[in-house]
């Protein structure tokens, strides 16, 4: 079972949604595998932090976890708090009703008749003749166990993660399934595929798929944006030009304005990773003027020309 998600994120149970998001961002930035390539434990810790955030950022899952209805892995806990028998002390006699330790008295709480029918084989089984001991013995029969969960690591190429290209997974049993990547997919994020684990008497377990997004030769992820340093010639920078730029969706044409300097950043809308809401973020293209080494023609053209500006003045130099 996974560790307590509040402890993983360093939060109290009273933490707000803002506190949860802030703690996750801080830890994710610190532990991201791209910044800890020589520390394999950081990737493992990153996956734990992401799993904890996935649970606590979901209002419904968090509420169920706080009530003890699911565990830190998101699996349902045992009925009636998971104790042996009904509440450890069994049912206590009341004024014509039943009371579970910390539970419901006569006239209060839900109607448990359907549950008792399933346990005793009929609605009259609770008091028609044999009473509590007849056929039940004061013990609750444990449900049959589900099969084991199976963990997988899915390597997703950078570009396919950005475009959310469907991935195929070969399961331990030999079958294959097509997996749709979630919006806002992150490195180390875990996906749960219900019923795709090992078979068991109580039904199959789940498949737990950890996403690992590969690095790219020239794209870099920045939040949900993609950054790219784009080399341009001096002529293109001085006179302006339309240049071809690679994106995750294929090459597009980009207009470089006349007089552009190295370090200028241009934005290509909708060419980044998807956000949690499904909308695509942007690609940020930073221009880098690439000068030829020891070019005699360039030197001849610049002979007698002098730039009297001090481009470092704003730096105090």
| Helix-strand sequence | HHHHEEHEHEEEEEEHEEEEH
Global geometry: elongated
On the 0 to 100 scale, the average pLDDT is 82
Radius of gyration from CA coordinates: 30 Å
* Main sheet properties: 4 strands, mixed
What oligomeric arrangement do these chains adopt? single chain
The assigned CATH architecture of the domain at 220-293 is: Sandwich
Keywords:
3-stranded mixed β-sheet, 4-stranded mixed β-sheet, elongated, 8 helices, HSP40/DNAj peptide-binding domain, 20% strand
Task: Explain briefly what this protein structure is.
Among the domains are: 79-122, no CATH class; 149-215, HSP40/DNAj peptide-binding domain (Sandwich), CATH 2.60.260; 220-293, Sandwich (HSP40/DNAj peptide-binding domain), CATH 2.60.260.20.
Task: Detail the topology: elements first, then pairings.
Blueprint: H1 5-9, H2 17-31, H3 40-56, H4 59-66, E1 92-93, E2 98-99, H5 113-120, E3 150-156, H6 158-163, E4 167-170, E5 176-179, E6 190-193, E7 207-213, E8 220-222, E9 225-232, H7 234-239, E10 241-245, E11 252-256, E12 265-268, E13 283-289, H8 296-302
Parallel strand pairs: 3-7, 9-13
Antiparallel strand pairs: 1-2, 4-5, 6-7, 8-9, 10-11, 12-13
Helix pairs in contact: 2-3
What does this structure look like?
The chain has helices at residues 5-9, 17-31, 40-56, 59-66, 113-120, 158-163, 234-239, 296-302, and strands at residues 92-93, 98-99, 150-156, 167-170, 176-179, 190-193, 207-213, 220-222, 225-232, 241-245, 252-256, 265-268, 283-289. Helix content is 23%, strand content 20%. Among the domains are: 79-122, no CATH class; 149-215, Sandwich (HSP40/DNAj peptide-binding domain), CATH 2.60.260.20; 220-293, Urease metallochaperone UreE, N-terminal domain (HSP40/DNAj peptide-binding domain). The protein starts with a helix and ends in a 15-residue tail after the last helix. The strands form five sheets. A four-stranded mixed sheet has the order 8-9-13-12. The protein has a three-stranded mixed sheet with strand order 3-7-6. α2 (17-31) packs antiparallel against α3 (40-56). It has 317 residues and is an alpha+beta fold. It is elongated and about 95 Å long. The chain contains eight helices and 13 strands.
């Amino acid at each position: 079972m996974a560790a307590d998600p509040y402890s993983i994120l360093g939060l109290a149970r009273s933490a707000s949604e803002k506190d949860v998001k802030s703690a996750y961002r801080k830890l994710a930035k610190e532990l991201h595998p791209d910044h800890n390539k020589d520390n394999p434990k950081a990737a493992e810790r990153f996956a734990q932090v992401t799993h904890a955030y996935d649970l606590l950022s979901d209002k419904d899952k968090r509420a169920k976890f706080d009530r003890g209805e699911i565990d830190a892995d998101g699996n349902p806990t045992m009925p009636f708090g998971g104790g042996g028998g009904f509440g450890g002390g069994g049912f206590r006699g009341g004024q014509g009703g039943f009371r579970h330790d910390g539970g419901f008295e006569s006239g209060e709480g839900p109607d448990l008749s359907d549950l008792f029918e399933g346990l005793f084989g009929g609605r009259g089984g609770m008091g028609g003749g044999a009473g509590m001991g007849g056929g039940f013995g004061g013990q609750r029969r444990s449900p049959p166990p589900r099969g084991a969960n199976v963990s997988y690591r899915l390597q997703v190429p950078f570009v396919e993660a950005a475009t959310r290209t469907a991935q195929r997974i070969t399961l331990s049993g030999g079958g294959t399934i097509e997996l749709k990547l979630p919006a806002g997919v992150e490195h180390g994020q875990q996906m749960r595929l219900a019923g795709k684990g090992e078979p068991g008497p109580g039904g199959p377990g789940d498949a737990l798929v950890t996403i690992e997004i590969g690095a790219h030769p020239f794209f870099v992820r920045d939040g949900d944006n993609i950054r790219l340093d784009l080399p341009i010639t001096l002529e293109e920078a001085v006179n302006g030009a339309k240049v071809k730029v690679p994106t995750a969706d294929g090459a597009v044409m980009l207009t470089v304005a006349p007089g552009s300097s190295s370090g200028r950043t241009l934005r290509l809308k909708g060419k980044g990773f998807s956000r949690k809401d499904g909308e695509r973020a942007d690609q940020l293209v930073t221009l880098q003027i690439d000068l030829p080494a020891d070019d005699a023609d360039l030197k001849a053209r610049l002979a007698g020309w002098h730039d009297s500006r001090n481009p470092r003045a704003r730096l105090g130099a």
